[in-house]
Design a protein that fits this description.
Shape: flat
Number of helices: 21
Mean pLDDT: 82
Largest sheet: 6 strands, mixed
Distance between the termini: 88 Å
Number of strands: 23
Strand content: 15-25%
Helix content: 40-55%
């Protein structure tokens, strides 16, 4: 990428701000070396890494490299056989520990940050190295006694020898023999040896080695001969300790050298992850987002650059966002407007955000923003006049433009500030138009700023070009900094002069000199701007109403959800209470039934309880509860049943109120088989009333229904029957028995599962149900409960 453009757009300041978020020097180096790339796939990869880092920090805001350091120089010295000091070894241990912690933390986030997790896996886990350094060195860098048994032994001997030496000197100083020879009763050190201060005139009284004397010459410092050997022994042990310490440090340095490659790779991976986390922290500060990426002049469906509410990342204080669009139906945009109105800021914002995105940084703009990956970015911004090189403003600009015209081509972003300025307006305007026309024909993408009025009409007339302007409020004489694409800017010179109080006569003369056509153009632009402002305000109002409607809709949906939840809870509570009441009624009915079976004839009490139970079941569940468990009441024996029955007798079934003819009787006479219409029933003889000579006429076929029960199956059937896998000729008999039992058990409805398959079994079942007296109506099940593979039959009650 063009380094001059990178410098002009102040990308180095973005790099410096990024480096400030890095945790250690290795990642700061990566930030300082960050460069935009023209490789679209690499741009996408870099942006994806930044997005993953944003997710990681959202989940773990305090994640960092901790105490990691760039230990590569120390590792390289150890590789060459050098001796590392304690601080370097401790830095290596801290770096290894940080890598272990960070690797584990990012590994747990593999699903949201797969690329970062892949980088983390490059970090080596070196527990032996970490433990050995920790075992041998203290936090302050001192070599611990635990570093080796020999060091522990030597240090014990050093302490013992030192104590013996001090004890002997103490005896000499405080004993009576040399009290008058000593200047003071104290022990001190000179040249690493323990000595005592002796008066110069009495030095013959204490024999020993003189190591020093005072400045006045009145005191000499003597090591008594009696302690020389003790001092020598102490010193020898100290040297042995120092040699053992050096051996330990060399062993640790050799261990570092053995893991040199792994340590270097670990530091590089740590730096890369810290660098990505720094990009995420910069994005958070700038409220930046990942832009969509578009590349190539032949990209299908290309929509160009679109920066929604973009903000220049280096501006401080309140920043007015601008929306920049380029590359869809035009690739050259000419921005006009007053000085200090924000033209150059708009130019730089487009260029700098492009460089940031191509470097893998999120851009300070709204979601949905889009960048185009350019092969190069070229810029001519600012005044580079040079007295030393005898260059005027125009000459300095032209040198840059000459180079840009030479190298610009397709997929090049060109930024021209005040194109053609600094010379005669007519020639400068012509030159500017020629340059823009040439760049358009070369396929370059161009954003240019100008004051030339001729360029407004030029940009309007040439296909592939468009006008843009920065707003200026003539009431406040201040720019609004908003960028308006599609409208050329007004000069506002006369409006500003009038606002500042210029004599009306002078203003009128100025308008005359400008020319009627120019005044009409300015008036037309003023009207267009006013209409556009009105439409923008209307759009903003509609947007506010849309957001308010969305808020109200969300609020209503939440309220409806709460109401539905409350309704369901009320229903659940009602069912719980009804179930409790039903259970109580069942208990009462069972007790009444037991009393009845013991001979108590309070039948009305039992029937009342049965009716109450039926009402309770209906009120709680909307229909008789499936499997409600209402026990069948035994009939009360009557006097009529005392007469013995015989086959062929006509009887009335008391519980049904239906006449029938006895077919057979059991041996013990307790049960009879009775024909009722087309059905044969097995009924207890206690439920039969002989009709004697009252032979009923032709009995109609008794419709099957819940009152007809074959007592051979007394259990309450399930609420559904599964016929899948049955043959068609097996279905009807079994289904008839099941419906008979279900009706007598009081089930309001049943589910018949026949499956979908070829549909044969479904057809057999439904044809039978259509003619069955047990069934009132039937229908397919709800799609969530089996759909057309299940038929729900509502039984006759």
């Amino acid at each position: 990428m063009n380094q001059k453009a990178i410098e002009l757009l102040e990308f180095d300041q973005v790099r410096a701000r990024l480096a400030s978020f890095c945790g250690f020097s290795a990642s700061k180096e990566l930030a300082a070396a960050l460069e935009p790339t023209p490789d679209a796939s690499l741009v996408r990869h870099r942006l994806a890494l930044t997005t993953e880092a944003v997710r990681v920090l959202d989940l773990s805001p305090n994640l960092s490299v901790g105490g990691a350091r760039d230990v590569r120089p120390a590792v390289e010295r150890a590789r060459r056989g050098g001796l590392l000091d304690a601080s370097e070894l401790l830095a290596i241990r801290a770096t290894v520990a940080s890598a272990r912690t960070l690797r584990a933390a990012i590994g747990r986030l593999d699903t949201v940050a797969p690329n970062l997790a892949a980088i983390a896996r490059r970090m080596s886990d070196l527990p032996h190295l970490e433990n050995e350094i920790g075992r041998c060195l203290g936090e302050a860098g001192d070599v611990l006694d635990s570093a080796s048994p020999e060091l522990a032994r030597l240090r014990a001997e050093v302490r013992a020898a030192h104590q013996r030496l001090l004890d002997r000197l103490h005896d000499l100083v405080h004993g009576g023999a040399y009290r008058h020879a000593l200047q003071e009763p104290l022990i001190t050190v000179r040249e690493g040896r323990y000595v005592v201060p002796v008066r110069s005139d009495a030095r013959g009284q204490l024999r020993g080695l003189i190591h020093d004397q005072s400045a006045s010459g009145q005191t000499v410092y003597v090591e008594p001969f009696e302690t020389v050997e003790l001092g020598n022994r102490w010193r020898q042990l100290q040297l042995a300790e120092a040699r053992e310490v050096e051996r330990i440090m060399r062993a640790l340095s050799s261990l570092v050298a053995a893991h040199a490659d792994a340590l270097v790779t670990t530091v590089e991976a740590l730096a890369e992850i810290d660098f990505q986390l720094a990009k995420a922290r910069l994005a958070a500060v700038q409220r930046a987002v990942e832009p969509e990426v578009e590349s190539g002049p032949e990209t299908p469906g290309r929509r160009g650059m679109f920066l929604s509410n973009a903000r220049h990342p280096l501006l401080s204080g309140p920043v007015v966002p601008i929306t920049i669009r380029l590359g869809d139906d035009f690739t050259v945009m000419v921005i006009t407007g007053p000085n200090t109105g924000g033209k150059t800021v708009a130019l730089k914002t487009a260029g700098l955000l492009t460089l940031m995105a191509q470097a893998g940084l999120h851009v300070p703009a709204d979601p949905g923003s889009r960048i185009h990956v350019f092969a190069d970015v070229l810029a001519d911004i600012g005044d580079e006049q040079s007295i030393e090189q005898n260059l005027s403003t125009f000459s300095s600009h032209m040198r840059n433009v000459v180079e840009i015209v030479r190298v610009a081509g397709a997929d090049t972003l060109v930024l021209l500030d005040e194109v053609g300025a600094g010379t005669d307006p007519s020639e400068g305007s012509a030159l500017a138009r020629a340059v823009l026309q040439h760049l358009l024909e070369r396929g370059a993408w161009v954003i240019a700023t100008t004051h030339y009025t001729e360029l407004k009409a030029f940009a309007h007339d040439v296909p592939g070009m468009t006008n843009a302007s920065v707003e200026f409020d003539p009431e406040t004489l201040a720019p609004t900094y908003r960028l308006q694409i599609g409208l050329p800017g007004r000069s506002n010179a006369l409006a500003i002069a009038a606002r500042l109080g210029l004599d009306p006569t002078v203003l009128a003369r100025a308008r005359t000199l400008v020319g009627e056509g120019q005044v009409q153009v300015e008036s037309l632009l003023a009207g267009i701007n006013a209409e556009r402002q009105r439409l923008d305000e209307l759009a903003a109002a509609l947007d506010r109403e849309r957001r308010e409607l969305q808020r109200l809709r969300a609020d209503l949906e939440q309220r409806l959800a709460r109401i539905e939840e409350e309704r369901q809870e009320i229903l659940r509570q009602a069912r719980r209470e009804a179930a409790a009441e039903l259970a109580d009624l069942r208990a009462q009915l069972r007790r009444a039934s037991a009393i009845l079976q013991r001979g108590d004839h309070r039948l009305e009490e039992v029937r009342a309880a049965s009716r109450a139970l039926e009402v309770a079941g209906r009120s709680a569940f909307g229909r008789p509860a499936p499997g409600s468990g209402v026990p069948r009441l035994p009939s009360v024996p009557t006097a009529a049943t005392a007469t013995p029955l015989a086959a062929g007798d006509w009887v009335r079934i008391a519980s049904l109120g239906k006449p029938g003819q006895v077919v057979t009787l059991d041996e013990d006479g307790s049960t009879a088989e009775v024909r009722v219409g087309n059905f044969k029933l097995r009924v207890g003889t206690h439920d039969l009333e002989p009709l004697g000579n009252e032979v009923p006429g032709e009995m109609p076929a008794v419709p099957a229904g819940p009152g007809i029960l074959s007592p051979e199956r007394r259990h309450v059937p399930e609420s559904q029957i599964d016929l899948r896998g049955w043959r068609a000729d097996q279905v009807i008999p079994e289904l008839e028995r099941y419906l008979n039992d279900a009706c007598m058990a009081g089930l309001p409805s049943v589910r018949i599962i026949h499956g979908k398959g070829s549909g044969v079994l479904r057809q057999v079942v439904r044809e039978y149900l259509a003619t069955s007296g047990f069934v009132e109506r039937f229908e397919p099940a709800d799609p969530r409960e089996g759909g057309d593979g299940v038929t729900v039959a509502y039984l006759a009650v």
